[in-house]
Amino acid sequence: MCLAVPMRVIEITGDPDDFLNKQAAQVESEGIEKEIRLDVVDHWPAVGDYVIIHAGFAIHTLSPEEAERNLELMREMARGLDEMTEGGN
Amino acid sequence: MKYLKEFRDRQLTTSLIKRLEESVTGPMRIMEVCGTHTMAIFRNGLRSLLPEELELVSGPGCPVCVTSAGHIDAFISMADQPRNHLAVFGDLFRVPGSNGSLSEASSRGARVDIVYSPMDALELAVKNPDELVVFLGVGFETTTPAVAATIMAANVQKIDNFIVFSTQKVMPPPLHALLGDPELNIDGLLCPGHVSAIIGSDAYLDFAKQYGLSCVVAGFEAADILQGLIMLGRQHGEGRAEVENGYTRLVSREGNRRARDMVDEVFEAVDSPWRGLGVIKDSGLAIREKYEQFDAEKRLKLTIEDVEEPKGCLCGQVLKGICRPPDCPLFGRRCTETNPIGPCMVSSEGTCAAYYKYGTGQ
After folding, report:
1. Chain B contacts of A61, Cβ < 8 Å?
2. Angstrom distance (rounded) from CA A16 to CA A18
3. Closest CB to B197 among A3, A39, A60
4. pLDDT per residue over A29-86, tens digit each?
5. Residue B218 half-sphere exposure, CB side, CA atoms within 13 Å?
6. Residue B162, strand partner residues
7. Alpha-carbon distance values, B199 to A39, A42, B224 (Å)
8. Spatial CA neighbour of B320 closest among B186, B124, B136
9. Chain mean position to CA B341
10. Is A1 close to B19, i.e. CB distance below 8 A?
11. pLDDT tens for residues B242-285?
12. Which one of A8, A20, A59, A70 would you mutate to disrupt binding with B, by most B Cβ within 10 Å of its Cβ?
């Protein structure tokens, strides 16, 4: 039920404070495009940000830098271990 | 998606398993609360890689599995009414009630569509003005904001042939109910990723304090899960009972307030029946009076019957973490993936389905 595929925002419709009109975005991942809703997203995204989607609704916005930073943390963790185990595998 | 690939990286996983072995210094029993975690653990073969002293117990976090037999029967009776057109998440389609499943209702002519989003159900209503589209709201905190937003959209667009049957639930009350049971006897919680994106990691402070449990929020990739277990191992080893967040790329301490405000606008807390756990106070979400024209229970004047569990089925005990699927006399014999008897075998997140599909991992 909870798939964590982040998709890149390429176009935005609506305004974060206007709930009477459609709040949506066109998103893309690996060439697949689709429309998702922004009604319940935590932070209103900008074009180029990533969103995590659940049941057709974005629930969380991730800047490209945030995604990269998190990844770097995990890489560091792996590197640290490899050093501890003398190169590791 | 290039990021996703790296979160699944095998080499990363191998390193993390070494670190996990170092962090687990004694017997430790952890409940993975969320059904998506259960499935991810099996799919990635993690159970067979874990240190022997670490035992994982599956929790009540599969929304279809905890839906009561009475509610499942009500879904099917709604499908059989001629004007109704049901819109459901795929997981519900094959769940057997005491009188067949939605899949069987569909094959005898009932209109039942599988939708990806509640918004798809609303579109179905717009396209079919002569029908009454009933969306079956089954889910936890991650799904309820989407359903609330859809009801608000229906209200703004004045669509009167769209209703929602809300059997939606919230996670903290059943956890309290379970943790109060000494038979469960666990040391820590691997807390759900996306539920926590909405409710925030602070929601687990009570569990750390009240039950002395180590709590760690984790994402759904193999590396995320292993990292969560490492954090739990360290807490347990050092005698700490704290809330830590291993999924900061998605979860904050306060969660998603915008989504919670929308849920509060449309829903209110109500006592709700859970399969295996019984009725739990304030564990469900009912549609507020202000939006009652969208409430299927009121519009269709539904009464929910008390229905007995299928004979011999131990789903209830499995959901409580007291039994493992192979302990059930039906498991793998009368109850299989192609002929499921209990909901834990049907749902793609059910513990029995995970054991059946991937083996016990022992």
Report:
1. none
2. 6
3. A60
4. 878 899 999 999 999 999 999 999 999 999 999 988 886 776 666 566 555 445 444 3
5. 32
6. B133
7. 17, 11, 19
8. B186
9. 19
10. no
11. 999 999 889 999 999 999 999 999 999 999 999 888 999 999 99
12. A59
Cα separation, B171 vs B215, whole angstroms: 14
Strand pairing category for A24-29 and A32-37: antiparallel
Query: ipTM of the assembly?
Result: 0.89
Task: Kindly report, residue by residue over B54-94, the tens digit of the pLDDT.
Answer: 999 999 999 999 999 999 999 999 999 999 999 999 999 99
Spatial CB neighbours of B72, under 8 Å, sequence gap ≥ 6: B95, B96, B97, B307, B343
- Do the bridges between strand B243-245 and strand B267-274 make them parallel or antiparallel, or are there none, so unpaired? unpaired
Torsion over CA: B178, B197, A4, B218 (sign): negative
Partners of A52 in beta bridges: A6, A60
Interchain contact, B258 vs A41, CB within 8 Å: yes
Count CA atoms within 13 Å of residue B10 on its CB side. 2
Q: Do A52 and B146 touch (CB under 8 A)?
A: no
- Do the chains contact at A78 and B15, CB–CB below 8 Å? yes
| Beta bridge partner(s), residue B101 | none
Shortest CA gap A67–chain B (Å): 7
Angle B58-B243-A52 from CA coordinates, rounded to 5°: 70
Gap between the Cα atoms of B286 and B294, Å rounded:
11
Q: Under an 8 A CB cutoff, do A59 and B1 touch? A: no
Question: Contact at 8 Å (CB) between B98 and B92?
Answer: no
pLDDT for the residue numbered A7:
86
* Chain B CA closest to residue A68: B3
Contacting residues of A for B249, CB less than 8 Å apart: 62, 66-67, 70
Q: Do B223 and A74 touch (CB under 8 A)?
A: yes
Amino acid at A79: R
Burial (0-12, 13-18, 19+ Cβ within 10 Å), B293: middle
